[in-house]
Amino acid sequence: MLFLNDARFRAVFYQFLAISLVLLAASAMYATASANLAKQDIATGFDFLSRQAGIAISESSIAYGPTDTVARAILVGLINTIKVSLLAALFGTFIGVLVGIGRMSTNPLLSRLMLAYVELLRNVPLLLYLFLWYFLIILVFPPVRQAIQLFPGFFLSNSGLAMPAVEWQSGFGLTFAALAFGVVAALVVRAVSQRRRIQSGKANAGWIFALVLLVLPVLAVWASGAISLSWSAPEAGRFRLTGGLQIRPEFVALLIGLMLNLSASVAEIVRAGIQAVSKGQWEAAQALGLPRSRTLRLVVLPQALRVIIPPLTNTYLTVFKNSSLAIAIGYPDLVMVSNTIMNQTGQAMETIAIFMGIYLGLSVAISLFMNWYNARVALKAR
Amino acid sequence: MKRKFLALCAATAALMVGATAAQSATTLETVKARGKLICGVSLSTPGFAAADDKGRMQGFDADICRAIAAAVFGDADKVDFVLTNINTRFQALQSGEIDVLSRQTTATFSREASLGIDFGPTVFYDGQGLLVPKSLGVASAKELTDAAICTLPGTTTSQNLTDFFRTVGGKFELVVLESPDENRAAFYSGRCEAISSDRSDLASIRAVANNPDDYVLLPETISKEPLAPAVRQNDSNWRDIVSWSVYMLMAAEEKGITQANVDEMAKREDPEIQRMLGGADELGKMLGLDSKWGYNIIKGVGNYAEVFDRNLGEKTKLGMTRGPNTQWNAGGLLYAPPVR
Q: CB distance A55–B177 less than 8 Å?
């Protein structure tokens, strides 16, 4: 065993051995599963993806009907999952930062209140909260025929919130392009003006230019008359309100549940991050005459961010994966749509493989993005 | 360390070989060796399968399981009930976790063709209907365009609704909730205008409402739902046992044999009754069962009419009429092939 005494060879050899064993086990499992399925006459393969789905999905961000394919139905589910996780992450982080800061307030009432908020949310399973929010919505609000009118055109009921909506007749793509152009231009101007400010040490009017650049392209498109919009307001049909924008209670319950759950975790992460910044930083800033709020914003938070980002990545991954609890309260997310498809085609292995693959892929994408961001804010040795 | 790793590999390999070998015994042998039948039933559906206050499983589907157990063991109580989820019921059967699925399951072409299962005889002819609050003033399902309709997930139910509203030419909002209790709560609270399921199930939903008279079942039956027990494919003997246990219930009703008079009937000269109850011919042996299998079923659970009346009939909370589930000679659809 001469080779095994060579450390460099050993390092490669054992890794190679481990990988081959994993691959062998995986292929053996695959072969056994296919053989058993074939023996039991259970259909296999991915042909079912191009078959007609034949199911209605009540919430869809892209055009979808029961005559569309199974693959498109899965896509609708995926978009619903992303939509709710993204919004939950956005609002949850915002609330979480405020709660985390409030938790360290010198005002005992505020800090205790925030403590109670965090502990209440963290110590009860999310699933139970989802049931709570959902049942609160459907039991507390009146049925849609006795909907509460908040403002003219805004109706609140246990079927959700119906509000007037703008519908694009034409010019959506153009407006979107103009907006994207505006955002990019504004960012560039902002970066340039910031660099100049740092170099010269004088304030400049760059933000006005940025703002103008942000708004101008959209205004130009609008002024040229390429956009035509129509107004759609909810109207009372025989049973419920039709038209306008309808936000369904299943979506709201899931969003609230995920958002609050996330905010509690974020609050603790933010608190830990801020407390990790040494007291000397606060005192130094105070000595320079910075008020407490500016100290927090300009001195402490940027340093805390380095501690905050890695655990925050985990929290975002959790909220994304937790969105699959949607099935309990009837929000048609990826898992729920896949489950229905699984039941109708009977191809459980393939369907589960698809949605596990999607979850894996997106989770990896989220962590790659967060790692990139982490590297950006990490302490740079200069 | 290295030895441990090798042992782990060996164990993994053995596990995978074992997984292929476990399937070879027939279901009857497995059940007999175990001494109990394992039967998959619904989660809390009063009338079909729900535990009573003493924890005993009661219901129409549960009694079908008991009839099979009586045929195999001569004892209707040698059954373990497994509550199966609507999404995993077929997998439970495919994987061998349960021996028979008796769970208000609709027999359909694609289920039989692609799931590796076989359906037994229809035990209950059902159809999908819609339940609405009386206050809506709806007289027909066709009026329900644009309404929200609650259903359970992953069933033929949502597909039937989609098909129905496509033919009517209207849209509807589908609200799919995972648990039956949640579904009912959403319906009672007015989240949806209607709840859709098999008519038998709707009768059960209506029965547990605070005031059953506030709800009406719409007249349309939008689909055929023949509910049948299911077994794994490629085990004819086991399928025969399940099928003939069901037929025995029907045949017993046709012949007027009941749980109470079965001993007396066994003494009758009628040759068909003799064959059914194991007096003449040893028909049971052909299926690998006791020759008294028929007697044991009827002694254990009674005939079809008794099972129906006890669990679903007009004297129960569900108050269902027999409808199409009457004997063929009374204009119904129950038709057991001759026992000979």
A: no
In whole angstroms, give the CA distance from residue B136 to residue B216.
Answer: 10
State whether residue A330 sits within 8 Å of chain B by CB: yes
Find, in chain B, the residue whose alpha carbon is nearest to that of A137: B191
In terms of residue numbers, what domain contains A189? Answer: 165-232
Residue B2 pLDDT class (50, 70, 90 cuts): very low
ipTM for the assembly = 0.74
- Across the range A370-375, mean pLDDT stands at 90
Strands A245-247, B79-83: pairing is unpaired
Chains A & B: contacts with CB separation below 8 Å: 131
Chain B residues in contact with A250 (beta carbon < 8 A): 175
Three-class secondary structure of residue B128 per DSSP: strand
Eight-class DSSP state of B198: E
Interface test with A, best of B115, B119, B164 (most A CBs within 10 A): B115
CB contact under 8 A, A32 and B20: yes
A39 in any annotated domain:
no
Cβ neighbours of B190 in A, within 8 Å? 138, 142-145, 158
Going through A204-293 in order, the beta strands assigned E by DSSP cover 228-232, 235-236, 241-242, 245-247
3-state secondary structure of B208: coil
**Helices A70-103 and A348-377, packing angle to 10 deg:** 40
Q: Which of B171, B194, B226 finishes a domain?
A: B226
Are both B118 and B200 inside the same structural domain? no
Note the pLDDT tens digit of each residue in A181-199: 888 988 898 888 888 888 8
**How close is the nearest chain A Cα to the Cα of B190, in Å?**
5
Distance CA B340, CA B338 (A): 6
